[in-house]
Amino acid sequence: MTRPVHLLHDAAALARMLAIDTPCCTHIAMSTTGTPGAWGAFVDQNPLAGNWIVDAEIPCGRIVGYSGTLGDSLFADEPRTWMRPGHERFAAFLDEIVPALRDHGRTLCIRPHHRHVIGDVHAAVKMLRDRAGAPVEVLLSPADLLAPSMLGQLDEHLERMFAHLGPVAAGVLIADVAEADAGDGEGLLETRPIGEGVLPTDLLARLLEAHVPATTPVILRTGHDLAHQRGLIGL
């Protein structure tokens, strides 16, 4: 069986192509084979800020979003996020949104990020266990889970991510990362095309094969040769 592959398109660009004034989300993951269709609508908002809104016109039933932060910006380094206040705020957010998701036949797929409430493998697995039966999923995105301090044990961290989240993730978003310029002020890794950063592509290919079911979609970024990306990670 050929694993389904989707491309992550910029929603604003798609909106312009369709003569739509305002895009309904930030990105849309679209299938690359068969009948064109949207796998998920990506929303880059902070649900802990109290103003999380999703356009009713999103083209699919899956909303992909972050778990959020108590910081002033989406990727602020705010320690309270991982403590009780952050977890309580996120739990309250899910309690509020789950009934609406059920009513509208939608699913919320959480995209873990190392600066957010759901910021590591343990938190993601615990959320799935605590919310079993709810329309809540997890996206495995290694580039989002990696902090600069983790690069020294990169293989070990990747192995753990795929072993625990690969079998249960709704999809896998693959991108590469590299250390950003020292003066960028964010302290985050820089996202790059596959093969242009520090992630070992042979290891990614092996981990996909070993831990991710063949029916689970892999999502790649647009703007780079699709065949080349697929070849690097064995798709």
Q: What are the key terms here?
A:
alpha/beta; 8-stranded mixed β-barrel; 10 strands; globular; 235 residues; 31% helix; two-stranded antiparallel ribbon
Give a verbal description of the structure.
This protein is α/β, with parallel strands linked by helices. The chain has seven helices and ten strands. The strands form two sheets. The chain has an eight-stranded mixed β-barrel. Strands 8-9 form a two-stranded antiparallel ribbon. Helix 5 packs parallel to helix 6. The longest helix is centred in the middle third of the chain and has 21 residues, at 84-104. The mean pLDDT is 90.
Give a short synopsis of this structure.
The chain is of the alpha/beta class. The protein is 31% helix and 19% strand.
Layout of secondary structure:
Elements: E1 5-10, H1 11-17, E2 27-31, E3 38-43, E4 62-65, H2 84-104, E5 107-110, H3 121-130, E6 136-140, H4 142-145, H5 154-165, E7 171-173, E8 176-179, E9 189-192, H6 201-211, E10 218-221, H7 226-232
Parallel strand pairs: 1-10, 3-4, 4-5, 5-6, 6-7, 7-10
Antiparallel strand pairs: 1-2, 2-3, 8-9
Helix pairs in contact: 5-6
Structural class: alpha/beta
Round the Cα radius of gyration to an integer and report it: 17 Å
Low-pLDDT segments, ≥5 res: none
Task: Report the helical percentage.
Answer: 25-40%
Largest sheet: 8 strands, mixed, barrel
General shape: globular
- End-to-end separation in angstroms reads 11 Å
Q: Count every helix, treating DSSP H or I runs of 4 or more residues as helices.
A: 7
Side-by-side strand order of the widest sheet: 1-2-3-4-5-6-7-10
The proportion of residues in beta strands is 15-25%
Q: Compute the average pLDDT.
A: 90
Number of strands: 10
Order of helices and strands: EHEEEHEHEHHEEEHEH
